[in-house]
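@channel anyone free to eyeball this complex?
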Amino acid sequence: MRLLYFAWVRERIGKPDEEVDLPASVRTVGDLVAWLQGRGEEYAYAFENAAVIRAAIDRNHAKPDTAIAGAREIAFFPPMTGG
Amino acid sequence: MRLLYFAWVRERIGKPDEEVDLPASVRTVGDLVAWLQGRGEEYAYAFENAAVIRAAIDRNHAKPDTAIAGAREIAFFPPMTGG
Amino acid sequence: MGVRLQREDFDIGAEIAALSAGRTDVGAVASFTGICRGGDIVAMTLEHYPGMAEAEIERHVEEAQSRWPLLGVTVIHRHGRLVPGDNIVLVATASQHREAAFAAAEFLMDYLKTRAPFWKKEERAGGDGWVEARQSDDAAAARWSGRRPEAAE
Amino acid sequence: MGVRLQREDFDIGAEIAALSAGRTDVGAVASFTGICRGGDIVAMTLEHYPGMAEAEIERHVEEAQSRWPLLGVTVIHRHGRLVPGDNIVLVATASQHREAAFAAAEFLMDYLKTRAPFWKKEERAGGDGWVEARQSDDAAAARWSGRRPEAAE
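replying in thread with the prediction:
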């Protein structure tokens, strides 16, 4: 699955995107955040205040309890600050 | 005193403006309309429905009971229809 | 900047650009362009009360400036004979933020469409006729009354 | 016409003119231009989510078209590094009458300022920083919710 990061989430993790293989236990956006938080310091830093971070599954806004089954692309980003 | 007419008030009266000498009894906009109505067919036609006609004294909107003393220019016109 | 009544067309892009040229405090420019529509109209002639139209529009620009924090306002209104597709009126407003720019442009357009001393005569296939005042326009203009009673006409 | 995300500047006058070119049913074109403001900002960089930004803006343009009788909509949003005085965003809407054109332009700007996938990083003398979401912008966008519940996000 492809993960994308934007703005300070991208800066804290240190990359704009990556491919990951998820364990079967990761079923929702919230599960994915928890899994990412355990991947290292930079992820823990990026998701230290997970409540403010927004997610999109295949370019549609998603909530923590949204199922990720079948997703090709999941993005994480801060609240949008527009143009 | 200078009188100005616009739009169909001008067309019905047949002129865009004129100078008039008013009798002392003409004290308000309403008096002036009544006086004009008696000046001939074209005026009677222009002011046949006097309630819809608007007036301005020296370029400020005026009501039928507004006094005309000291006015240099009084205009009569239909409701405005903008741009 | 300013209020202009003219027969000639105007350059919308140049007018909008002028509101923020040479300064960096403008964050928002709203504009409205009114255009002569076709259909069964061959042409229309806009008559205005010279002198009073400028003075009245200026007064409403000042009113807009007192209601909203504006950094610039341009109003251009054409008069004379116009055919479908011709520009009629331009209002452009500049501010730091969009709320003031939009509100002021709408306020000025509501005024121009209802109470500015302009009269519109349409040429149709069946003959010419003066346009009557639209009730929906009056209702739009009435929105602005009472918000600041001391500034009402 | 349409939605464009681009690094390059845009020609406001040409975009507005394009909405009524070759037709005579457009009576009203509203536009909004967002401009990078100065002050203590040296520059800003706009990051967006390519693909999602276009799709989301398109969806909101469709929503605007279903709410108001529009004859054309153009949205251009720049990304990349911008300095004070640079244009950032243009929304232009065409309709027969001004009410629809103004309302749709405001609706789209409220969306673009709050929920479109763009993030703004400012360069200041004291260092760089990501802009935080403004509460007043969220309030402006919330105005449009609930009017047509079935169309809410």
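from a first look: Chain C is about 35% helix and 35% strand.
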